[in-house]
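ok here's Tetratricopeptide repeat protein 39B, seq below lol
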Amino acid sequence: MELESALKDCSCALQLFLNNRFADALALLRPRKSESMYHAMGYSSILVMQAAMTFEPKDIDTATTSLRESLQTCQRFRKKSGFMETIATFWYGQPTENFTEEQIHAELCYAEVLLQKAALTFLDESLISFIKGGMKIRHSYQIYKDCQDLSNVLEDSEKQKSTYVHFKGGVNMGIGSFNLMLSLLPSRVLRLMEFLGFSGDRELGLSELREGAASDSLRSILSTLTLLMFHLYITVILGTGEPNLAEAESLLKPYVEKFPNGALMLFYTARIALLKGDFTFAQENFLACIAAQEEWRQIHHLCYWELMWAYSFELRWKEAYRYADLLCKENKWSQAVYAFQKAAILSMLPEKEAMAWGRMWQVDGLRMRIAGKSIPTEKFAAKKAQRYSSATPAKLPVPALEMMYVWNGFTVVGKRPSLTQNILATLEEADEELKNDPNPTEYHLDDRCVIQLLKGLCFRHLGCLVQAEDCFNHVIAR
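and the structure came out like this:
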């Protein structure tokens, strides 16, 4: 199949996907997935997204099989190398001369599929799978660098071809994503990764992704979504800086205009509103996102998580509990966190507090492991829940607000002074209860410190810096 025709088909499939017609997108790509690298890559990419959302073994197996077949399809179009060339490529990368138009696209598609296969490998909890995934990522990164070198040395006549913009957009997306994500690693780990040949330059990563997002290429949406994920989630959760909401809105605007009922567009519109502190508008758009499609219910689960927090920020615990309960029943991403979150919200409702104890007992048994290691948020939840089943059981004073802090939610609710005041009032009430407790537990001091920390955050966001400092000093002094 001609490269240009394959790209047109994949572009049509992408339009279907963004219009919530996920099955139709797969149906369009399926017939030619064994004869076209782009059909193969697009088809397996959708299955990978589905597997990552469901965590169902059958979906993971289906996606893994499709990725294996896609790699074989892409391999058929790659430049053939002899034994010595293969050895040289392993050490020095792919030489950049004498590539055909089809071969350079095959390199790019192979790198993308290999990276997806590596990501899926991490869903297996064994150490061996973790190592295999790391090796695949290293190989994928090397191919992306080779593609970047190819892009730099191609003749102008090659760059004038209609397919080049799609190749360049893929290079932007790959190099940009690698640099951006690696730049988030701790400095010691980053130095090790750079020694192994990776690059973790955040500004370069953002620049490449912005160039890719601005291009009229098949992969421009991937660059856009990566930037949105960085601005709207990573910077917030990791606390690496203020999210660039203006850029996020600018990136999203053309897609909102083109796909006004697209689930992804509604979701990110709602997320931007949430980070601005407009919780009512955010809730409306998350609900609209849920109503927009039924085919992929896992997108509903993303909305449930966000709605749970949107209502929690407003201290509307019954509404928040509803979505925490739905996550526990329907989603498999992190059952330990969901169970803890559900119990934490219940504990904020005096009439339901007794029910929270039973939920807390379940948390530790629901933990997942990746390469033998616990997920940090699950480890935190299990550690907190342990006190409910200890020899001298004791409740957590404000577990839902503590989890809000863990997910950096105070930076979000801090944009609404009235709601911050309400949270502060809840904390002061809990603090007063602890101070007057006639039978303090062994956790009494820890609980007081947690409350002082959270009160300090509230005061800081309210501009009461002296009171905030007093709270933080209280914690340090203990």
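fwiw The chain has a mean pLDDT of 89. kinda neat tbh
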